[in-house]
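Thread: "does anyone have the structure for this chain?"

Original post by V.I.:
We have the sequence but no experimental structure in hand. Need at least a predicted one for the grant figures.
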Amino acid sequence: MARDQLGFLEAFTASKLGRNERLDRVSSEVRWSRFETLLGRLEAEGAGRPPYEPLLMFKALLLQHWYGLSDAGLEEALNDRVSFRRFLGLPLEADAPDHTTVCRFRNRLAAAGLVERLFAEFDRQIEERGLVLKQGTMIDATLVEAARGRPPRGHEDEALDPDAAFAKREGKPGATYGYKAHIGMDQGSRLIRSACVTPANVNETSVADGLIRGDERAVYADKAYAKAERRQRLKRAGIKDRIMHKSWGGGPPLTPWQKRHNRLISPIRASVETIFAILKRRMGYVRVRYVGLAKNQAHFLMLAMAYNMRRAAGMAK
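Reply from O.Q.:
Generated one for you, tokens below.
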């Protein structure tokens, strides 16, 4: 249904109606045809009324993430905001996708395993534009509450989400029941180069190597990622080790050099927290939206991609 020519009603509206500078920048800078090719792999949704074009639905999901909307909230916004319709290429007189259509499309996207390929595609685009600096990769993780209520302690077998888990928040009272979101951020550009979700009780260090791309000049991380084998791999690859040191229980205390190393790295590494603040406060990622690891992994990659698109558009100003 998306197309370039104006609809009947749009021919009579003011030229500035529905203009949104941020959305216009994203529209002009992203190479949508590449996404359209990937999305063409989705099968048509049965007989009857033709489905909305996959690219239109993909753009609708991006809007949902940028503005922290529920499926019902997205449906309402598409029926109300001209700027959203303009971004989708949806004529004013056309029906907008309803919330069930949005949900079905998201499920199909995840089931087809396309979200990873879509994320990788935009990663290629920002590299081609020279936006990825590769000065260093900053890895970190944050806890996110489950979509469903937590079970009583000791009754995890009664959980409504079998993939969620309890985890203690370091330095804070209580525990989180849910998932842990991990990212690898490009130093300087603050673009997300890698992302994944695990149950909350998975240790950060167990997924850290998958967040390192191998083409960065350094890797920054807090002491939770301190591991001798990782330091050796970085050294062999010619990547600077900027992981903070920790003193192991019963082992020797940190040397003066290690303490100085930590003091120098800590304020640099802390910039990764800005991304988590944006994801949670601006994009609504205060808790996962879905039940199950697979759906939440797909959702987090979509969220990371949406963040990167807005970030890249801002960098190009």
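V.I.: this helps a lot. The chain has twelve helices and six strands.
O.Q.: and Confidence is low (pLDDT under 50) at residues 1-6.
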